[in-house]
Design goal:
With 388 residues, this protein is an alpha/beta fold. The chain is built from 14 helices and 14 strands. Helix 2 packs across helix 3 and helix 12 packs across helix 13. The chain is globular, with a radius of gyration of 22 Å. 40% of the residues are buried. The structure holds zinc ion.
């Protein structure tokens, strides 16, 4: 193939993927797509007709969603492509089959993951995947692979779990290769916080935001930064770890080698250590009436806002999406964060931040896993979607 043909093919693929990404966020007409992609309406119409005939797009019934005469809105056929979503953390492993529209059927769930050898967990999960493919030959043709959300840090190009604390038996485990060996499917992994950020970007609370920080606060602290609709990775392919930004330079020694890390103070078990509260729900429930609880919650808000301001200064973001246990009683706690962060922004002559609550719809964790694979396809210059 000569260079010109190759370039033309690449451009065609790029534009089709751009169109699918836009339509996965919201239905749009041909004219709106042409405007957003920067192509002529005629070029978009050719592309749309091809995708409609391949059953990848669908036309929505205008009468039901539009008032007056408006162009026919298009959407992605939610069953055009599928991926297995694989979610893994210290407590649970879940697998589901997920359509690109975000619909999920759970196939496998295992609690107390730490109690099992990694190969046993992967054997059981892959058995569920192979069993599903045997029973659904028609869907099998549309399955792109397995998307994995698991504890980080990860060696992303090689799909290897590196050294997440409290997850020692999985250190050095080549999760992508092990799944591929057992299922024959292409597998991509990213850490839980990045997967959640990408999920909220495509299906959840951040659909209308191209740049934001997702801050996952529960037993640990994870972070994912989305910039210009893509997850941000550094020079070594790693994600920014806000949990390991120091908030006290003479503070507690952290397992990461640094001192005074945010995670060593603001991860929920660390916050509640030596307090009478069993979990975050207990704390936030009484914080409005009980001064000790209020003071402890205020301390958490101060810890998190200190690190958030650091992130805002470094990445010039305007939106923070909170996820994990910390979203219990979101309105009350987010007010505390606003009170600490916005005065700093005012000094910098910047607008107040927007605090969002991460989406926790049914099966969101499993869908976030599958979406790792959808995102890999839609953002890749080399992976070709079937039928495109
Ligand atoms: Zn640390």
């Amino acid at each position: 193939m000569n260079k010109q043909v190759r370039n033309a093919d690449y451009t065609k693929q790029y534009n089709r993927k751009m169109l699918l990404k836009l339509l996965l966020k919201a239905p749009a007409s041909r004219a709106e797509l042409a405007r957003d992609i920067g192509l002529t309406k005629a070029s978009v119409s050719i592309m749309v007709d091809e995708l409609l005939s391949n059953n990848i797009l669908q036309e929505l019934d205008c009468e039901h969603i539009c008032r007056g005469r408006k162009p026919t809105p298009l959407t992605v056929n939610p069953c055009a492509f599928y991926a297995f979503g694989f979610f893994l953390n210290r407590e649970v492993c879940k697998v589901g089959i997920v359509g690109i529209g975000g619909q999920c059927t759970e196939l496998f769930s295992l609690s107390d993951v730490i109690g099992y050898a990694p190969s046993t967990v992967i054997d059981m999960a892959c058995h569920a995947i192979n069993d599903y493919m045997d029973k659904h030959p028609r869907i099998r043709k549309k399955i792109l692979g397995v998307g994995i959300s698991c504890p980080g840090r990860l060696d992303l190009p090689n799909g290897i779990i590196l050294n997440p604390p409290g997850f020692e038996s999985w250190h050095g485990y080549a999760i992508c290769n092990e799944i591929k060996k057992r299922t024959g499917l292409l597998s991509y992994a990213c850490d839980n916080a990045d997967a959640l950020a990408l999920y909220n970007l495509r299906y959840g609370s951040c659909k209308n935001h191209s740049d934001f920080l997702l801050l996952l606060v529960d037993t640990g602290i994870g972070s994912g930064i989305v910039m210009k609709n893509k997850i941000y990775h550094g020079a070594g392919n790693a994600s920014p770890e806000l949990g390991h930004v120091s908030i006290k330079f003479m503070g507690r020694q952290c397992g990461c080698g640094n001192k005074g890390c945010l995670e060593a103070y603001a991860a929920i078990p660390m916050l509640l250590e030596n307090s009478p509260y069993k979990n975050y729900y207990d704390l936030i429930t009484v914080a409005k009436e009980d001064k000790d609880a209020y003071d402890l919650l205020s301390l958490e808000a101060t810890y998190l806002s200190t690190a958030i301001v650091t992130a805002l200064n470094m990445f010039d973001l305007k939106t923070i999406c909170l996820a994990g246990d910390i979203i219990t009683g979101f309105d009350y706690f987010s007010q505390m964060l606003h009170e600490r962060i916005n005065p700093v922004l005012a000094v910098q002559k910047k607008a107040p931040i927007q605090l969002l609550c991460a989406d926790t719809s049914a099966n969101y964790e499993t869908i976030s896993g599958a979406n790792v694979l959808f995102s890999s396809y839609l953002d890749s210059s080399s992976l070709t979607l079937p039928g495109l």
